[in-house]
Design goal:
Blueprint (H helix, E strand, L loop, with lengths): L2 H13 L12 H8 L4 E7 L2 E10 L3 H8 L2 H7 L3 E10 L2 E8 L9 E9 L3 E9 L3 E10 L5 E10 L6 H24 L2
Antiparallel strand pairs: 1-2, 2-8, 3-4, 4-5, 5-6, 6-7, 7-8
Helix pairs in contact: 1-5
Length: 191
């Protein structure tokens, strides 16, 4: 399997814009990276699941970032391996999304269905509601900072029912997450 395809498949897991991975404060190590204007990303193996922790500071209010996190159409633009992104159910304060990736090079397409619970402009919690992933849960948090910026924090846990080399999975997720966060910041604030 090519690295590009693996990164694409794993980006779908990030794109599930996600019980949560923990809602803990960011570790001290993240502060230096964030103050330098970079995206901070940590990827750990936790049993069968991969745990992703990421953050970036964006020069915009949460209200400006929120629509991008809740736009299914943007997810397809962000990830070329995503063939389907649709809202299959909608109710007060929640949606159920379905994502499907295209199959390629002997790797089957992956279908994920997840419920997103919204606290407008501050938090999105997601959890598995069906599909092929063994584990899927997490959250996005938007925390206003005193300088007018917003700290976007992402935490998730997911497990794919495939035998991908764990080190390659973690490296692909780390790289894909960092690129996605920097692209989102540029789209929102131009920086």
């Amino acid at each position: 399997m090519s690295r590009k395809l693996l990164v694409g498949l794993l980006a779908v897991c990030l794109a599930v814009a996600g019980g949560t991975a923990g809602a803990k404060p960011l570790p001290a190590e993240s502060q230096t990276v964030l103050k330098a204007g970079k995206a901070w990303v940590r990827v750990d193996q936790v049993g069968e699941a991969v745990a992703v922790f990421a953050a970036i500071d964006i020069a915009a209010a949460p209200q400006k970032i929120w629509p991008l996190l809740t736009d299914c159409g943007r997810a397809k633009k962000e990830n070329p391996n995503l063939t389907v992104c649709r809202v299959v159910e909608k109710g007060p304060g929640f949606e159920v999304w379905e994502h499907v990736t295209k199959a390629s090079m002997g790797v089957p397409g992956i279908r994920s269905v997840f419920r997103t619970d919204y606290t407008p402009h501050s938090r999105i919690v997601f959890r598995k509601a069906g599909g092929d992933l063994k584990v899927l849960q997490g959250e996005w948090r938007l925390e206003p900072l005193s300088d007018g910026k917003t700290r976007l924090i992402y935490e998730s846990r997911f497990a794919i029912d495939h035998d991908f080399p764990p080190a390659l999975v973690r490296a692909g997720i780390k790289s894909g997450t960092e690129k996605s966060f920097l692209k989102l910041r540029k789209e929102v604030s131009g920086k």
